[in-house]
Structures are given as C-alpha cells and as structure tokens.
DNA sequence: TAGATTGTTAATCGATTAACAATC
DNA sequence: TAGATTGTTAATCGATTAACAATC
C-alpha cells in the first residue's frame, strides 16, 4: 500500500511550470526533448526526465516527448481535465484584480462567486458577477459545491473566513492574507504572501549575514 | 571560505513567516518559546530552533526567546533595517492592486514608481503617484537607484521588461506574469503565479494518480 | 548502423526531525 | 534544587544530479 499518489511534492509543484512552457510552445512543434524543456523552464534535464517519469513513460528514446501528448498527460495528472469552481472572499483591490484576471478561466478555473462583508459593495456588479454578502456563502455553498476558496480579506478576518469555508465543505484554500491559517489537515492551504516575497529578495540583496564580511 | 551567507535557503524562506507571527503577537508578551512559535507558524519546534540558531544564540535556556529582540534579529538578517525602493511595471488590474496595497509600506518597502506602455494610462495619478511611460524607466533608474522591480505586465512582454530592468541595474525581480524569465544569474527572481497555485490545489483535490484507485 | 535521447540507478546533497546534554 | 527550554548532534528522510544502459 502506497500513499494516495506516488508523485513527490516537489514534482507536483513543478508540473504547472512545465505545462506553462508547453502551452507557450509553437503549435507546429511536434516533439520536445528533456534538454529543450529544461532550457525553457530554467531547469535541469535530469530533473525534467525524473519528474516526467512519474507520469508514465510517454517519451520516446532517441526522439523526445510528443508535446501535445505530454501537455495532456500533465493536465490529466493535475486534475485539469475538468473545471473547478472558485469563489473569492474579500473584494478589495486584490480580490477585484483576481476577479477580473483572465488567466484563470482558460486554465481550468471558473470564478463562480464573489463575497464581501461590506454592505456598500454587496449588490455591485463585477465582471458580470454580483457581489454577495458573506452571510450568503453557507447556503450558496450547499447548492453549488465550491471547490476552491480564495481569501483576499484583511489579515484580521482571514481565520474566520477560513473556518467558515471549512464549515461550508471547501477543502482547498488559496490565502493571500498575511496570516497563518489553522485548519483541519483534510484541508489544503496554499499561502501567497506578497510582502514575504519582497523580504526574501531583500535578504539576498543585503548579501547575507554580517559575519560574511570578514571573508 | 564559505558561501556569502551560511543561512540555508529553506530557512531564509521561513524567516518572514516567523517575523509575521512575532509582529502579530501581543506587545505585552516578553518571551516566546520555540514550541509556541512553532504552533503560531504551523511549524515544528525543532525546525524553529534550528532556523533561529542560524541567527546567533539569542534564546535563553529554560526561558525562551525575547520576542522583541528576536523580531529585530530576523529583520536585521533579512535586510529590513533599511527601506527598499520598489517600482511596478504594468498598471493593469494586478499592478493597480499592488500599488494601492498597504501591506508593503509598513514592512520595509516603498513604491517609488509606476510604469506602463499604454499611453492612455500614462499621466494618470494612482495613490499619489503618477504613472510614467516605460520609456522613462531607464533615465529614472539612473537617478533613483531602484532596488526591486515588480512585473505585472501581460506574459508576452514580461521578458522584454525583465531585460530592460536588468539593463537599468535592477538586481531583484518579483514576477507575476506567467512567463519564465531568462536573466543573468546575478539577478534574483521570485515568481508568483496565481494559476499555478490553483493547479497545485487541483492536483490534491483530484486525489493523485488514477493508478491509486486500485489500492 | 550511428546518433540521439529516454528511463532509471546510484551517489550526493541538503533539509527535517528526534533526542539530549547544557544551562537558565 | 526541580522544571523548562535552548542549541546542537546524529539519524533519517527526501530531493537533486550525474551517469549510463536501453532503445528509438
């Protein structure tokens, strides 16, 4: 008995990157080698082959991978052969930007609901959808079966929103609020923190530890 | 001779998280143990101690860490005792959201410029700053000394923008465009791809490989 | 056949974790 | 002193990479 998926975490997190490179490829290109895909994705050819080997053996020795087939296999592995319903909670600057962002729809995600606690926003139309009050979430969720909740609220209320989502049966959360979320471990959380990214860059710009000066 | 910083990559990427937890702490709280910090940051106490040991020995056996001192040491290590100047290229939905996002300023980052290629946007005022044309970037950069460039353009032009930034002397890039950037390895790139995050969640929702069904 | 490239093995490297002596 | 908690060691685990036999 092995774990529900034999694919290592690190590989899963790289598959979308390969997919993105394959989709950007000229449609005329029939095959691609691990070396070429490595170059496109800023990766190492051995790593590419090892990652792809987890999908099955879709490469042809001496030739490479069928680009179209590989694209499909990655999508299948990532569960992107179906469409997932996404809701956004918190229609501030970032939430609005995501609601209007075209990059989701053509990548397998459909934004089916926008929620906010601010009554002055409720009822407003945004990219064809009406903003609903957060209190409507529970009944909506029961009817619609939401796959992913995106949290773009202020940090102070992020935990409450996460708890509400979990109570509504949502098992995947993408959290943009700079707050740690405490959820059952049946729930998957991906955290994106914009300030964190800048802080990591800051570390490398400042050149590491002061001790390194006496090198 | 060791590398310019002895701190492992994985630790650097966790320091902002500890920092965020410490800043959310009650100001009355004088000390914090590795166990408590681990709970707050959804981490393991041994990992916390190991990470913090890279900063020096600021803990006290039997007592814990001085919360305020620890906060300062992490900020110092991350290079956050100074302020970094940030520019945003591409004032679309996401770029505008970031320009108006308060979370940067009080975390050590100052947005000093907004650029776009669209002449209808150039000259517009946004959160007190005037959007300038991308062609002005080169001379502005020479005068101002920009630390970090944030790319929020369409994917198609992201590489050109990155190249321009590098030519302007920018050595740290935060890229939101779903495109792989090819830059010299003196330049640090952090990539944030919103669709990628959803795709990773999709993988775990769909339960891994089909082969797993016959378990 | 000769050249190219995969799939996989085995070595290496780095990160995580448990355990515990040191010490407040 | 007794209890608590760090800092660090050593074991473990997982990820990366080079190398090459298999094979198109």
Can you describe this structure?
The structure is a homodimer of 215-residue chains. Chain A is of the alpha/beta class and 215 residues long. Chain A has two domains: 9-77, Orthogonal Bundle (Arc Repressor Mutant, subunit A), CATH 1.10.10; 84-197, Rossmann fold. In chain A, 39% of the residues lie in helices and 19% in strands. Chain A contains eight helices and ten strands. In chain A, the strands form two sheets. The first copy, chain A, has a seven-stranded mixed β-sheet, with helices on both faces. A three-stranded antiparallel β-sheet of chain A has the order 1-3-2. In chain A, helix 7 links the parallel strand 8 (148-151) and strand 9. In chain A, helix 1 (9-23) packs across helix 4 and helix 2 packs across helix 3. The longest helix of chain A has 15 residues, at 9-23. Chain A is globular and about 60 Å long. Mean pLDDT of chain A is 92; it is low at 209-215. At the A-B interface, helix 1, helix 5 and helix 8 of A face helix 1, helix 5 and helix 8 of B. The first copy, chain A, binds a DNA duplex (24 and 24 nucleotides) through residues 8-11, 33-35, 44-47, 49-50, 52-53, 57, 59-65.
Can you describe this structure in just a few lines?
The structure is a homodimer of 215-residue chains. By secondary structure, chain A is of the alpha/beta class.
Structure keywords:
Arc Repressor Mutant, subunit A; DNA-binding; 8 helices; disordered C terminus; alpha/beta; Rossmann fold; homodimer; seven-stranded mixed beta sheet; 215 residues; three-stranded antiparallel beta sheet; 2 domains
